[in-house]
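Final report, results section. Input specification for complex C-07:
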Amino acid sequence: MFRLLYLRLIKLHPAPFRQRFGGEMIDIFDCQADGVRATASLLADALLSLVRQRVFRSEFRQPLSIKAAAGPLLYTAARYTPRPWVLLNGTLLAGALFYVAAAVINKGSPVKPFRIGAHYAGAPTSTEKARAQAGTDMNSIVEVGPPFEDLRPVTGSLYFKSVRVLLALDSDEDLVISPSEILSAPAMLRWLDLNEDGSLDAEECGLFQSAAADRSQPELERARIAFMHRHPVLAVLDSNHDGRISESEIAGSVAALRKLDRNGDGRLTLDELLPEQAARAREGPSGQSRGHGIA
Amino acid sequence: MTPVDDFLPLAPATLHILLSLAGGGLHGYGIMQDVLHQSGGKYKLGPGTLYDNLQRLMKQALVEEIDDPAGENSRRRCYQLTTLGRALLSAEIARLEGVLKHAKPLMRAPRSTRA
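Structure output:
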């Protein structure tokens, strides 16, 4: 096994060195490798030699020699020039193939484009800026491919994990709050009441405040209220918008949750629960927001 | 400045290899054994180090390859000093003698203080 390893190391040496001295080195290895220590020493020596040859002995490596005197590197198989009509045919054929390929690339794809963002010219912030931007502002729409429907379950799963109320309500973890799960909402919400004060604050609903110790009490309170407003399910449960789901709001959670059921199918799906989906549904199919940059 | 001065001082491995070849042509394994003998068993030259040095010494025309006088093993090649190699070895020995000449009195009566 050690001999094989030694042979491998010799084989890794640059070819000129290996061809000249490799055989002698192997002979010496066969003579001297009569113990573990001697073998290890020989292997280490070969490894060092390999490093030396590869790193420091580049001047001994023979470059690939091309015998220029022997003749040109490339030869033509025949000494004739094509006739003009053949060249014309070839040009037309190449053009036709290019046109067909371009047409297939442009229109042949089954994937329909869709809009991922738009930019609308905004009001200039100053006279100088307006002068500088005159004639350079663009109205552009970027359209590339179909919506990524497959990502919705992933997004939904992450969202349910971030909002603890949804995680508790969705007992079968199918990312849908079924009618039976809506009915059991009060019990599940009470289960989230970790401090047993009868109501749910933002932290119990899933708010995670990093470095909370560094923030002032008003900042923390603002963050709590913003969290409760941001998520549709919390916004409907916290009907008085005080940043807490009180005991009475927990008791009335069934009716509150049913307000989110816009399509009236009795259950709450991602369309009705995700903040951006809910906002889009509120705006309606013709809703279109205007803004600067990529939306 | 003679041409050999460019090579001085010699590295220990180079010096030992040139010394082992001073007595005549030797093959690689013979050089290794001779180096071991020269150093009283303290300096063991590995084949990688040996052939790396031999490659460089041949490139510098200090050592040349000759036919194996015994003709025992066709895979073993013999090496011997060239004229330049012998001149270099002489120059290195002279340099070492100078060093020894300077060092011996110092070692007998070391200076008490140094600036």
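Confidence is low (pLDDT under 50) at residues 64-70, 286-295 of chain A. The CA atoms of residues 4 and 221 of chain A lie 72 Å apart. This concludes the modelling results for the funded period.
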